[in-house]
Amino acid sequence: MLESIHNTTEYIKKRIGDFEPEAGIILGTGLGALVNEIEVEKQLMYSNIPDFPMSTLEFHSGKLIFGTLGGKKVVAMQGRLHYYEGYTMQQITFPVRVMKMLGIKTLFVSNASGSLNPDIKKGDLMVIEDHINLQPMNPLTGRNDEELGPRFPDMSEPYRHDLIKKGLDIAKANNITCHKGVYVAVTGPNLETRAEYKYLRVIGGDIVGMSTVPEVIVANHMGLPVFAISVITDEGFPEVLKPVSLEEILAVAREAEPKLTVILKELIARL
């Protein structure tokens, strides 16, 4: 894997010249429009990058975007990868390792999630302060390479407290409803049953989703500070649970995205 990471990084560097991103951004389901705020200098299709996995979802663009956001140089993944697409955890997190090799100092992650907490409503935002990992595999399984990180990385602060505070302060200053809480990562792609929603709430979850945690584990393994934020697109309250469609989830994500963009743009500007 290390050889593939280096080869992919060198390929990208040859195409972006002396551009060195300070921050990496992973854009979640229905949240790709943030790139409209980026002063784009270069775009690379995943399909043209050696060893780079391609998203199989029709609503994920599959581009690496290089440019300036909030006065800082960034690289953004417009289209993320999921375990339910059939990829290994190492493939899902490969782009994080490449972004680190390209020079990023901080990773910003967004996603669309379902609420488990009645105080967190559809259309709200939530900054992730911790997570519970219920996905079946770990991206660090297998032989460890010390060049990438330690064998047993610490996870006592997977999401940086100072970034969380700044993000919440930005939300408050802009009158944006934004909570903080615990994200539960599940495999998907099906949504949860009533009993599962109840269980996830009982074990301490505030929201649930199908991504993010593998990338956060690898970012911590490589010493990258992380800020993660969710758009709440549906509500998993067992007593009043209603069917939800992908179209509804995408519509809520698009409607809430401008609020997420404000927070991420201002937070990156403060780096």
TrEMBL record:
<comment type="pathway">
    <text>Purine metabolism; purine nucleoside salvage.</text>
</comment>
<comment type="subunit">
    <text>Homotrimer.</text>
</comment>
<comment type="function">
    <text>The purine nucleoside phosphorylases catalyze the phosphorolytic breakdown of the N-glycosidic bond in the beta-(deoxy)ribonucleoside molecules, with the formation of the corresponding free purine bases and pentose-1-phosphate.</text>
</comment>
<dbReference type="InterPro" id="IPR000845">
    <property type="entry name" value="Nucleoside_phosphorylase_d"/>
</dbReference>
<dbReference type="InterPro" id="IPR018099">
    <property type="entry name" value="Purine_phosphorylase-2_CS"/>
</dbReference>
<feature type="domain" description="Nucleoside phosphorylase">
    <location>
        <begin position="24"/>
        <end position="269"/>
    </location>
</feature>
<dbReference type="GO" id="GO:0009116">
    <property type="term" value="P:nucleoside metabolic process"/>
</dbReference>
<dbReference type="GO" id="GO:0004731">
    <property type="term" value="F:purine-nucleoside phosphorylase activity"/>
</dbReference>
<keyword id="KW-0808">Transferase</keyword>
<dbReference type="InterPro" id="IPR011270">
    <property type="entry name" value="Pur_Nuc_Pase_Ino/Guo-sp"/>
</dbReference>
<keyword id="KW-0328">Glycosyltransferase</keyword>
<dbReference type="InterPro" id="IPR035994">
    <property type="entry name" value="Nucleoside_phosphorylase_sf"/>
</dbReference>
<comment type="similarity">
    <text>Belongs to the PNP/MTAP phosphorylase family.</text>
</comment>
<protein>
    <recommendedName>
        <fullName>Purine nucleoside phosphorylase</fullName>
        <ecNumber>2.4.2.1</ecNumber>
    </recommendedName>
</protein>
<dbReference type="Pfam" id="PF01048">
    <property type="entry name" value="PNP_UDP_1"/>
</dbReference>
<dbReference type="GO" id="GO:0005737">
    <property type="term" value="C:cytoplasm"/>
</dbReference>
<dbReference type="InterPro" id="IPR011268">
    <property type="entry name" value="Purine_phosphorylase"/>
</dbReference>
